[in-house]
UniProtKB/TrEMBL annotation:
The keyword Nuclease does not apply. Pfam families: Alpha-L-AF_C, ASD1_dom. This is non-reducing end alpha-L-arabinofuranosidase. Belongs to the glycosyl hydrolase 51 family. It catalyses: Hydrolysis of terminal non-reducing alpha-L-arabinofuranoside residues in alpha-L-arabinosides. Coiled coil: none annotated. GO terms for biological process: L-arabinose metabolic process; polysaccharide catabolic process. Residues 293-483 form the Alpha-L-arabinofuranosidase C-terminal domain. It comes from Confluentibacter flavum. SUPFAM superfamilies: (Trans)glycosidases, Glycosyl hydrolase domain. One of its GO terms (molecular function) is alpha-L-arabinofuranosidase activity.
Amino acid sequence: QADGTVITIKSDDNAPVINKHIYGHFAEHLGRCIYDGFFVGDNSEIPNTNGVRNDIVEALKKLQIPNLRWPGGCFADTYHWKDGIGPLDQRPTIVNTWWGGVTEDNSFGTHDFLNMCELLGTEPYLSANVGSGTVQEMADWIQYTNFGGTSPMSALRVKNGRTEPWKVKYWGIGNEAWGCGGNMTAEYYANEYRKYATFLTGDIVRIASGASGDDYNWTETLMKNIPNSMLGGLALHHYSVIDWSNKGDAVDFTEDQYFGTMTEALKMEELVTKHSAIMDKYDPTKKIDLVVDEWGGWYDVEKGSNPGFLYQQNTMRDAVLAGATLNIFNNHADRVRMANLAQCVNVLQAVILTKEAKMILTPTYHVMEMYKVHQDAKLIPIKFVSPLYVYNNKSLPALNVSASKDSKGLVHVSMVNVDSKKENKIEIDLNELGVKNLTAKVLTSKTLQDHNSFENPTKIQPADYKGFEINKGKLTVTIPPFSVVVVEGK
Ligand code: AHR
């Protein structure tokens, strides 16, 4: 008789590798993400390297962030990259029409971003302007960043202080083309994509602006109308929002709102399954990546903050959301090969929040840190039937799990208990795992609303976990309510 939910786990040589790029991040010119977030300028008293905060760099390096998407988001389709290069005093300003209507001085531009990526040891993912840009502007940008030979754009780059090209691999062709990127129809955008992609060439991955949530027609139309050879990735955006007109407070929320957020978050399973199935029809050998380049929780902005800046706190609800979503991505590693949490610093489900010289790591940061062991590890497929988290005559699967084996032979199983009240137990046959020595970490807290604050920055942190036992070769792990556990086996 099993002591909990029985998980069947078996290594499979044919299983995919979990692409490290699933653990990607997103930095838009939005609110305090770039300015007064990553970038404080080199005159700041906050320790920095060429204007980029050292504490943020250190924290993100620890996370091993594989890629960083920039400059948007909606901002990307208003952005003209040539305004952000050359002498600072000659750069024109830009009004950030999508986010707060603030005027920016373009002091953080292409060099600043790409050099920052080098500092972070991460791959840049540039989102290029289709909505209000031109093909020429995009073609010039790639020549500026990637071309090592003699050309007008590489000469300009050298003049601006950078000899070697950065060789940017990931290129998004527009963002949310169905909305802020130009309100295009899927058919119209497919044609635009083909045109832009024709002039964006080299050893790069071209990523098309993808569907919002369950807009399967968007995916179908793009897959049908764009030749596979022109498409490296197809995007998908999904935010866990209960009600766009009343998103609720980020900290002061009810169980009803928690249940609503998690219902939206777990919908990701259905979304990636169905979008993947459409892609399979046109790309049966799965060459094209599904790139979930915006995901996360989105609540009302913190009281008193600029409504256009999307600043929100981050609680255990967000930790559960992140753990569950990353488990879904891992389990769909055959098609989901890149994803970007929205957003990295001070915006939406941030991993880092700053206030003047202070910086805190959110519960979501800690989940990303606990899960980094899955990056580029081989997926171990798992099977189980989850118990239910029942609330108010509605239910959700209480547990979600993913597992992988890394190149050193270490096995990691990440488990999330979504249930807000009940602990759950998971039983795994250790013989199938082929491991003996086990350690575990847990991220949990007293209440779902708990969070790290500038006054108490370490309230929520991963801790060593002893809530497991081994009996006759079976491992039983107890997962407290609304918590995330990662077991490591050698
Ligand atoms: O992440 C915030 C915004 O959400 C992005 O700018 C846009 O792409 C999406 O609608």
